[in-house]
Amino acid sequence: MIAKIAILFAVVAVAYGGVVGVANLPASTALLADRVIAQPAITYAAQPIVQHVAAAPAITYASQPVVQYAAQPAITYAAAPTVIQHAAKVVQTYEPVEQHGYKIVY
């Protein structure tokens, strides 16, 4: 019984901050010492034996279907429209125009 109380105080001392905390324990801790009940032993049932089912059946696939493509249609275009170009518009001026250092008169 004394050993159980000593173990209890050691556990409580660690919980309250080590050996220094023992001096500061509340008075009610000493009263709980005789009411501590030993923890029951935990027993486990034997581990069940796992029985494996037969190997997975082999999966067979039908042959892959042949993909047939229709011939690509020929794309025909209408003739390109004729672009009619107009003659460039000539702007005439009677004022001399300077180009590359020369005055050009039109």
TrEMBL record:
Keywords per UniProt: Signal
Protein name (record): Cuticle protein
Supply the source organism for this entry: Orchesella cincta
**Do the record's keywords include Signal?**
yes
First and last residue of the signal peptide? 1-17
Q: Does the keyword Signal apply?
A: yes
Q: Which domain of life is it from?
A: Eukaryota
